[in-house]
Design a protein that fits this description.
GO terms for molecular function: aminoacyl-tRNA deacylase activity; ATP binding; threonine-tRNA ligase activity; tRNA binding; zinc ion binding. Helix content is 32%, strand content 27%. By secondary structure, it is an alpha+beta fold. The longest helix has 22 residues.
Length: 648
């Protein structure tokens, strides 16, 4: 089902003519009007025919959730075939629409339903606030979730069995619950005051407004490739792999270098600065292992399943399983805590929906630094949580994604917030800008508090980077214990942390940031420590070759040498299109004086390169300071450009 929800000053319609599939209606349905209402434009689809009742129930849950957000109690149910090219049969469409209207009316909501199969003239006046236009997609899985939720527990996660979708993918009960979970979106300002999203003035906070719209609409599908897709190919970093499953990428030498540096940086920072122990665990697990089976149903993700020796296995989506099973077998004292372990999962696997897969933004196979912290109690967990919040800000900043580049979402249960308001307010004060809040009446998942840093790209889509969660279930589920100072055996509180989020998303964020800067008239760049080539040396002519090669040999960093038989102008232009941070041209002047003429990309403007004279030692010193404390690797390609093959 496709649904477009419009919070309107008014909606009115008038029937004009019947079609061949029109339902029979009474006179009072031939025209209708509602004021201060939520208009639900709905297209019932072919896939909804497998579970029309569940689809109607899931739609009702979405509509009621939106009604609470926009503070309305009126709904116009309006059939709108133009939202889909794969419509259900008329009988199913009418049944679902009638079911939605009836269920809403039973809950005391004022409902009008426009007739199915009639040509109608309509006028709608949209209110224009961030929640006033929401696109929703109700899937077969969500319909099943609504049916599960009819048990009345409110979580949609009563069963502990792992179910497979029609495609054979693992669909957890938590994923189903997520689609019907009742949550409230708010904005918290820097003073700690909570605001309704529709009441908060987002002027001056355009990225936050885009993020709010993205989160509330839950529309993850991408209609056009974002800029980073062209850039990752143009810069020869990565590309789609047609020989694999969708969402599995190929990385060329330059892209592999960037990934490797980012991987090393995040893990080394977690180990050296944060005291984590690096471990390694399997990528494949038994789906019927009693502990893992229960955890699968508590994690909101679709999984790959495979069969091995007649056993049903699944590919990991994080390092939780392996680390928790390891923790179970360990002997842990209070003296060891907080105890931190990190693994770089190359790869984690999630069966993301096909329409959501695009470039490096959302993948099915991705690399994620995954750290878990065992804490003695909730007080220690909250202290660690805030420390890791600050740590994640610093990690992204050094990667090149600064505080202004991302928006913060803080999500928690209502009970946790009531008991820990100061912690939430402290988090907002730390970033000194308003954040999006999502609050649940009931805990649906294994955590009571989490945050994400979300990069908002030029397509107005948001992608989570760093995240930390306070987990209150898995110590018991995996039977993880420690011996406290009084000799008693106790269970720890667990933190899940990905200091950077998926490594591929960091590259996506850097490329999207560069594209947005370019659109503003700025020069697109990558951080020097991540640039595949840091310095390019170009001789003006053959007679300058000896001096140019000497200069290249004396520079200490990733230096390549353009020895191709091209014009100087073309060589310089290509250095620009490859975003080389420092380009050194060696001609007569440089050969005579020993001074280099260096084009510094970060200080240049479009069509106005910034050049500075400096010695080899001065350039070495400058680059050394820029990359100090960050991982380093040599050139990923041959030094001489004439020896390089083209990947794209």
């Amino acid at each position: 089902m496709q649904m477009l929800l419009i919070h309107s000053d008014f909606i009115e319609y008038e029937t004009k003519k019947k079609t061949k599939i029109a339902e029979e209606i009474s006179d009072d349905m031939k025209a209708g009007r509602l004021e201060e209402a939520l208009t639900a434009f709905i297209a019932v689809e072919k896939c909804d025919e497998t579970n029309p009742d569940g689809t109607a129930a899931a739609a009702v849950a979405q509509i009621k959730n939106t009604l609470e957000q926009v503070k309305s109690d009126k709904v116009m149910v309006y059939p709108y075939a133009h939202l889909s090219s794969s419509l259900s049969s008329p009988d199913v469409g009418i049944k679902v629409l009638k079911g939605i209207a009836a269920a809403l009316a039973e809950d005391g909501i004022e409902v009008k339903r426009a007739p199915f199969g009639w040509y109608k003239a309509f006028t709608v006046s949209c209110k224009g606030h961030p929640l006033s236009e929401l696109s929703k997609h109700i899937s077969v899985d969500e319909a099943a979730a609504a049916a599960v939720d009819n048990c009345g527990c409110g979580t949609g996660a009563c069963g502990s069995t792992v179910q497979l979708s029609e495609d054979g993918d693992v669909v957890s009960e938590a994923l189903k619950a997520e689609s019907v979970a009742k949550s409230y979106f708010k904005i918290m300002d820097t003073a700690g005051v909570m605001h309704e999203v529709s009441d908060f003035d987002l002027k001056g906070h355009e990225k936050l407004e885009k993020f709010v719209n993205y989160e509330v609409s839950k529309n993850r599908a991408v209609s056009a490739p974002p800029p980073h897709v062209e850039l990752m190919k143009k810069l020869e970093l990565a590309d789609y792999e047609p020989g694999s499953d969708s969402g599995n990428m190929r990385y060329y030498p330059k892209g592999r270098l960037m990934k490797s540096l980012l991987e090393n940086y995040v893990v080394e920072r977690s180990v050296s600065d944060f005291g984590a122990m690096e471990v390694e665990t399997p990528i494949m697990y038994d789906m019927n292992h009693p502990t893992l089976k229960k955890y699968l149903d508590r994690f909101p993700a679709r999984q790959y399943s495979i069969e091995s020796d007649k056993r049903q296995m699944f590919l990991r989506f994080a390092a939780c399983f392996g680390q928790f099973l390891m923790n179970h077998d360990m002997t842990i004292s209070y003296r060891n805590m907080p105890l931190k372990m990190i693994e770089l999962t190359r790869y984690s696997f999630r069966k993301e929906q096909r329409g959501e897969l695009v470039g490096l933004r959302r993948l099915r196979a991705f690399t994620m630094p995954d750290m878990h912290t065992l804490c003695r109690n909730m007080d220690e967990a909250k202290e660690q949580f805030f420390e890791q919040y600050e740590f994640c800000i610093d990690v992204l900043n050094n990667i090149g994604i600064e505080l202004d580049d991302f928006e913060i979402a803080i999500r928690f249960t209502k009970d946790f917030y009531n008991e820990n308001k100061e912690l939430i307010e402290k988090m907002v004060q730390k970033v000194n800008k308003p954040v999006l809040i999502e609050m649940w009446d009931t805990r649906f998942f294994y955590f009571v508090l989490k945050f994400e840093f979300n990069f908002v790209d030029s397509s107005e889509k948001a992608s989570a980077l760093s995240t930390v969660q306070i987990d209150v279930e898995n110590a018991e589920r995996y039977d993880i214990t420690y011996t406290d100072s009084d000799g008693e055996i106790k269970r720890p509180t667990v933190l899940h942390c990905s200091p950077s989020g998926a490594i591929e998303r960091c590259i996506y964020g850097l490329l999207e940031k560069a594209a947005m800067n370019s659109a503003k008239g700025q020069i697109a760049t990558l951080p020097v420590w991540l640039s595949p080539t840091q310095v390019r040396v170009i001789p003006v002519s053959e007679k300058h070759t000896e001096v140019a090669e000497k200069v290249a040999s004396e520079l200490k960093f990733r230096v390549d040498y353009d020895d191709r038989e091209l014009t100087l102008g073309k060589k310089v232009r290509e250095a620009g299109t490859e975003w080389i941070p420092y380009t050194v041209v060696i001609g007569d002047k440089e050969a005579e004086t020993g001074k280099l003429t260096v084009t510094i990309r970060a200080e240049s403007q479009p069509n106005k390169p910034f050049q500075q004279e400096m010695t080899v030692e001065e350039l070495n010193d400058r680059i050394g300071k820029e990359i100090a404390g960050l991982p380093y690797r040599g050139l990923p390609l041959p030094k001489y450009l004439s020896q390089r093959a083209k990947f794209v």
